[in-house]
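lol ok so funny story. i was supposed to be doing the assay writeup but got distracted and ended up predicting the structure for this chain instead. priorities right. anyway since i did it might as well share w the group, maybe its usefull for someone
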Amino acid sequence: MLGRERVELKTLEQVRVMRRAGLVVADMLAAVRAAARPGRTTSDLDDAARAVLAHAGATSNFLGYHGFPATVCASVNDEVIHGIPGPRVLEAGDVVSIDAGAVVDGWHGDSAITFVLGADGALPLGSPEADPAVDDLVRATEAALWAGIAALAPRGRLGDVGRAVDTAVEVAAAATGRAFGIVEEYVGHGIGTAMHQPPDVLNYATSSRGIPLKVGMCLAVEPMVTLGSGETRELADGWTVVTQDGSLAAHWEHTVAILDDGISVLTAPDGGAERLAALGVDVVRLD
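and the output, tada:
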């Protein structure tokens, strides 16, 4: 027991299975990004992710979860998370967040990306075709993700993650002059034999340092940031969460394992090596 929560600690072999699930999720997100075009629907993006799952022989951990009716969450513009894919037609300039998950041999992976849709498809970060404020938002949220992941490496306390995310967003706001908001009502989580497990992984600083970080923990770090207030509300569908003030939102997520020799980002194709090297953190390569 760690504190009052039972946190599932994994063996290295179990983490290796989670890595297989994580790579399926990475492929799902890549397929969705490649499929995104103006004129296509969010249901089309769900179809692209479902095809990857079928090819890999994996199953969806989203489909049927508390009744969720799709393979991925597709959230557009002011939708923060849990958007249900359907007939919505995508347009150039849309901010699209995709959250995807997969199960392999009973072990889960979970990851999310956000991109801006251009005339010919998803735009790379820094594209002159994107609205500068929106590009700043997506960049800031991704940077906050990697700052939170890097905070796991020293194996301190769980609160270090939220503090790192919070600081990264503050730094981005100061650098860009944008008024970013951090969504506090929804947080990251433990992951393993279930998609959502203890502990909660906050995206903001608190007075509590949190539980100790231990070898065998697998955590989903997932900051959600807006171009306005961080306050949200849930739509009548019982799933889609939107910003209270109608501001645009971004969402990034990775599944990360804490191992004897360091950390490994299980849902990043390179294990997080490139992005974390820039932050002075080495990763454990599992493949």
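The longest helix spans residues 12-35. DSSP finds five helices and 14 strands in the chain.
back to the writeup now i swear
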